[in-house]
C-alpha cells in the first residue's frame, strides 16, 4: 500500500477542528487539509464552567461528514483534546455536561485528597506534577459535592463509567468504552511504573474502580463506527476510530522533529508544555520539588515536562480588553510589543492566580504591586511583559528539565501556535542561550494523523521514522540566541 488519508479531530481551547491528513511514507510526503473549524469555548452554567459537549459533537460530526464528502477514501478517524476532563455515564447516557478544568471547584478538593494521600506519596505513585485541576482533584470535588448535596453536578455515585473527553467522543462514535493511555496518565490515577490503573489509590480515595474503562494504547482500534453514525457521516461501513495520543500534548510531541537525546520541546498554545522525551520516568525528590510531570507518551515514551501558563496570558488579556466590543488586532499588538524599548516587568508566569478566566492585566498589575515593581504602562507593554515572562519561564523550565533528566539540550523545538510568534521564539532563544527551531504549527493534528497512518499501514517504524516525515514536510524556522 502506498499511502492514504485519515481524519483528525483536534479539540482545542477555543476551537475544534477536523483535518484531513494524507501520508505516503514511501514517497516521503505528509500533507494536511483543513476541513472544518468550530467554536469550543466553555459555557458558564449555574453549576459552574462546563463543556458544551452536545454542541461540540454536532459540530464535529458535521465536520467529519464534510471530510467524507471531500475524500470518500478516508480510512479512519482519531480524536484528541486537552487532558484531565471527563464525562460521567450511566447506562450509556451522559450525566450532564462535563466540567471544564478551569472551573474553581477544585480548591477544597486538593486538601481533601492530600489529607488521605499526601502529595509526596501521590507523586511517587503517579509521577504527575501538581496541577489543581488534575482529574484526581476534580473527582474528589465531584464526590464531595455528591455527598453533601452542596453543589449540583456531583454525580460520581450515580455513574457506571467515566470517560475522558476524546474517549467519550470515541464512545459516541463507536459504542466502545476505553481509556486511551496517554490521556489516562494525566488523571493522577494511573501508576507511573506499571502504566495501569492504580486500584489501591482509587479505592483509598473512594472513587469506585468499576467506573474506569480498560486502557488502550495509541494505534489500537476502538472498532467501527456505529451504523447510525456511519449513515449520518456518509461514511463507508467499517470505518474505524483509532486511539491516537488522545492527550493533545502527546500527539504534539509525536510531531516534534527532534533528536530526543539532545533536544527540548515547547508545545506552545494556550499552555506552554516544556520538557524532554525520556524512556523512563524521573520521580526523584528534585523532580517533585521542581513540579515536573511524567506523562505517558506514544510508544511508551515519557513526556517529562512542566506546564507553563502559556499564551493564555495573552489571549485572556486580549479578551479582557475586548470585553466592551473593541476589536484588537493581535498582529498589531505583537508588533507594538516588539518595539517596546522601556524595560518591562518579568513576572512569575506560573503563579496560580493566572489560571482562571478573568481580568488578566489586572492580575499582572497586582503581581507587580505585590513584588514592588512597576506594572506595564500600556497594552503594548503588557504584551511585551507577558512575552518576556513566558520566555524566561520557558528558558528556566528547559534548564531544569535538562538538569533533572541528564539530557544535554542543544536545540529547543517550539511547536503549536506559539511557533508563529516570532517575538516569543526569539526571546526564548535569547533568554535560554539555545537555538530555537520553530514549527510545525499544526503539531497536534500531525501527531494525531501519523499515529493513525501507522495503524493503517500508510507509514511504519518508530517515532524517529515518523518525525523524519515531519522534518521533511515542514522545515522549521531557526532563531539563534542574540546574547541579549
Ligand atoms: C494542553 C493541555 C496540557 C494540560 C492542559 C489541561 O492543551 O492538554 O497538556 O495540562 O491542557 O488539560
TrEMBL record:
SUPFAM superfamilies in alphabetical order: Actin-like ATPase domain
CDD domains in UniProt: ASKHA_NBD_FGGY_RhaB-like
Domain Carbohydrate kinase FGGY N-terminal: 8-254
Name this protein carries in UniProt: Rhamnulokinase
Family that this chain belongs to: Belongs to the FGGY kinase family.
GO molecular-function terms, A-Z: ATP binding; glycerol kinase activity; rhamnulokinase activity
Pfam families: FGGY_C, FGGY_N
Domain Carbohydrate kinase FGGY C-terminal residue range list: 264-455
Keyword field: ATP-binding, Disulfide bond, Kinase, Nucleotide-binding, Rhamnose metabolism, Transferase
InterPro entries, per database record: ATPase_NBD, FGGY_C, FGGY_N, Rhamnulokinase
GO biological process assignments: glycerol metabolic process; rhamnose catabolic process
GO cellular component: a single term: cytosol
Record carries keyword Kinase: yes
